[in-house]
Specification:
Layout: E1 3-6, H1 15-27, E2 35-41, E3 52-56, E4 65-71, H2 77-94, H3 99-120
Parallel strand pairs: 1-2, 2-4
Antiparallel strand pairs: 3-4
Helix pairs in contact: 1-2, 2-3
Length: 121
C-alpha cells in the first residue's frame, strides 16, 4: 500500500492528500510501494518563482520515496500537485523528467480529480 504524508505543513492542506492519492492511483495504478511526502511552504525559491518541485528521496535505480514541495502561493495547488505527480511517474518509469509532457497532461489529471471529487463528496 502506498503511503502519503504531509510533512511540516499546516493541517488546512490535508485536502491535498486526497488529490495526491487519486493522482498516483491514476498514473501508477499497479504501484503499491510508494512513499510520498508532501510539503507546502511559504517560499520554495523567491528568485526562481517556482510553484513546485519533486525530489527523488532514495536515489535508487527503482525509486520509491519522493518529496513533493509546493508553494503556498501557487495559483492552483491542485493543478501544481498534478504536474508534480506526473514527474513522480516519469521518474519511476524512465528516471527522467519531461516538462512538456507534464504540462500537456496536468490539466486532464486535475479535471479527472475534480469530477471524481464532485461524484464522491
Amino acid at each position: 500500500m502506498n503511503n502519503y504524508y504531509l510533512m511540516d505543513t499546516p493541517v488546512r492542506f490535508n485536502y491535498l492528500l486526497d488529490a495526491l492519492e487519486f493522482y498516483m492511483s491514476e498514473l501508477l495504478p499497479k504501484h503499491k510501494t510508494l512513499d510520498i511526502s508532501l510539503v507546502v511552504q511559504e517560499y520554495i525559491d523567491e528568485d526562481l518563482n517556482i510553484e513546485g518541485f519533486t525530489e527523488n528521496n532514495d536515489n535508487l535505480k527503482r525509486p520509491r520515496e519522493f518529496i513533493i514541495s509546493l508553494s503556498a502561493y501557487s495559483d492552483n495547488l491542485l493543478l501544481t500537485l498534478a504536474h508534480e505527480c506526473i514527474h513522480v511517474k516519469q521518474y519511476i518509469t524512465s528516471l527522467e523528467y519531461n516538462e512538456d509532457e507534464a504540462y500537456s497532461k496536468e490539466q486532464e489529471l486535475y479535471d479527472s480529480f475534480i469530477v471524481h471529487s464532485e461524484l464522491n463528496y
